[in-house]
Amino acid sequence: MKIAVFGATGLTGREVVEQALEAGHEVTALVRTPSKMGSIKSGVEIIIGDVFDIAAVERTVSGQDAVICVLGDGRGGRVRSEGTKNIIRAMQKAGVNRVICQSSLGVGDSKGNLNFLWKYVMFGLLLRKAYADHVRQEEYVMQSDLDWTIVRPGAFTKGPKTGKYRHGFSAADKSVTLKISPADIADFILKQLTDETYFHKTPGISY
After folding, report:
1. pTM of the entire structure?
2. Domains (ranges, CATH) in the chain?
3. Which of 1, 30, 67, 87 is 20 to 30 A off residue 51, Cα-Cα?
């Protein structure tokens, strides 16, 4: 497939690109600093720019079969939602329908999966702006007419791709570890390209 990746230089994004190339997909990535992609950039069509440049976003999306959005912004509260809004507009203009968007476990009804630390300290205080950004991001995706899947991973942890993780669990499930490696997040995201199980759904993913 032809895939556009937004957020390709981030922890999950690099894994998405690398695993997508290994699987034989054609990857186009919009990046501000190509050197941050390291050695994997040689197999990628790179468009230099950012998600606030609508013309660059449109060039990235044009002619693609699917879009993967793994935008990050640290503790910031704007890039994920506003960038995703531009991606959606570009997709609608180009007639590209399939989008897989990385959000976070704890957003929406998955807040029930969180423990006290994550619910009240991390998202309630320290990461409040980032959490609100994810909420707005999900709203934009859900309100679109696209074939969307929103993936809600737990906190990033170091580790290789194992393929052994839980997904689609109940919002009342307190047994998940709330952790998962970017490599396994990428594995799950790429599987959604050919699987309609989670169309218009928001699966959580965690060990």
Report:
1. 0.93
2. 2-206 (3.40.50.720)
3. 1
Amino acid code (one letter) for 134: H
* Cα atoms found within 13 Å of the Cα of residue 34, Cβ hemisphere only: 11
Decide if 110 contacts 118 (C-beta within 8 A).
no
Task: Please report, as a single letter, which amino acid is at residue 74.
Answer: G
Query: How many Å separate Cα 4 from the centre of its chain?
Result: 12
User: Residue 154 has which token pair?
Assistant: 């737990």
Taking only the tens place, the pLDDT of each residue in 37-55 is 888 877 899 999 999 999 9
In three-state secondary structure terms, 142 is: helix
Taking only the tens place, the pLDDT of each residue in 54-97 is 999 999 999 999 999 999 987 778 899 999 999 999 999 999 99
Mean pLDDT, residues 108-123 taken together: 76
Q: In the structure encoding, which two tokens stand for residue 76, read together?
A: 């910031």
